[in-house]
Amino acid sequence: KVDYDVCSNYGNWLYSAGIGNDPRDNRKFNMIKQGLDYDGNGDYVRLWVPELQGIKGADIHSPWALSSAALSQAGVTLGETYPQPVVTAPEWSRHISHRPGGSPHPRGRRGPAQAPAQHKDRGIDFYFSRKKDV
């Protein structure tokens, strides 16, 4: 079931984009952790993102971290059939698996992640900070 409360949804989208109202300083919404906590097997994502239906289990929450062989087997080509990530926050790394097979860890605790090459030196703070001369 998908809810439709315009005000609540708008606020949640702003919050997840990092520009919502939050009294805590330096707070980031961790979409990968949320996916693992509330859709551990990826069934909801698989329902609404048919391009990723071939990815099994929790790996669906971070397809860019899968090996090229796993992506090929799932019928996914990053940058063609599914987009590359725009940015990956360094804080998400413990929730992303980089092991062959990508078996999930309890509560989403996983190995280190690598940011996409074009953003490797820029954390998500770069995009939301006032200082842009980095």
Automatic annotation (TrEMBL):
The keyword Flavoprotein applies. Belongs to the DNA photolyase class-1 family. The keyword Zinc does not apply. Residues 2-94 form the Cryptochrome/DNA photolyase FAD-binding domain. This is CRYD protein. The lineage of its organism: Eukaryota, Metazoa, Chordata, Craniata, Vertebrata. One of its GO terms (molecular function) is damaged DNA binding. InterPro entries: Crypto/Photolyase_FAD-like_sf, Cryptochr/Photolyase_FAD-bd, Cryptochrome/DNA_photolyase_1. Its cofactor is FAD. PANTHER family: CRYPTOCHROME, CRYPTOCHROME DASH. Keywords: FAD, Flavoprotein. Residues 90-124 are annotated as: Disordered. FAD binds at residues 3-5. Gene3D superfamilies: DNA Cyclobutane Dipyrimidine Photolyase, subunit A, domain 3 (1.10.579.10). One of its GO terms (biological process) is photoreactive repair. Binds 1 FAD per subunit.
